[in-house]
Specification:
The protein is α+β, with helices and mostly antiparallel strands. It has helices at residues 18-28, 54-67, 81-90, and strands at residues 2-7, 13-16, 32-38, 44-50, 93-99, 102-103, 109-115, 121-131. The structure holds zinc ion. Zinc ion is lined by residues 76, 78, 80, 84.
């Protein structure tokens, strides 16, 4: 298993980690297989979406804020229930096909760590299975 660290700098932020994941797959020497990416946190998530037009990410962020209000009758004493809920909606893992020594993504797709309770140091775990 590989681990990368992502330092977030805002309360809510979407950080493109596509290159970091591609670098790990390249260094693994695996040519064909599967790559699982997982964040071991309860207030951030992993997401695949467009990394060409940053307005797409802004729109996703704005809609998540509408779906999950900052203030409600939340019971969780830590006060960060919106972050826990958004993390659950986004999910904490993604998996990718490796072919030709690289993960295969659609033309406009990128891999994002979605921070909902930053700034923090986040871990991303990567497991690669396949043939070299
Ligand atoms: Zn909490």
């Amino acid at each position: 298993m590989f681990e990368i660290e992502v330092k977030t700098s805002k309360k809510e932020e979407f950080i493109d980690i596509t290159k970091k994941i591609k670098d790990i797959v390249y260094r693994s020497g695996i040519k064909r297989g599967l790559c699982v990416v997982f964040v071991p946190h309860t207030t951030c998530g992993l997401m695949v979406n467009e990394n060409a037009d940053p307005d797409v990410i802004r729109d996703i962020s704005a809609m998540l804020k509408k779906i999950v209000p900052d203030h409600m009758d939340y019971q969780h004493r830590e006060g960060n229930s919106p972050a826990h809920i958004k993390s659950t909606l986004i999910g904490s893992s993604e998996y990718f096909i490796i072919d030709g020594g690289s993960i295969v993504l659609g033309t406009w797709q990128g891999i994002f760590l979605a921070e909902f309770d930053g700034p923090r140091h986040r871990k991303v775990w990567v497991k690669i299975i396949g043939d070299s």
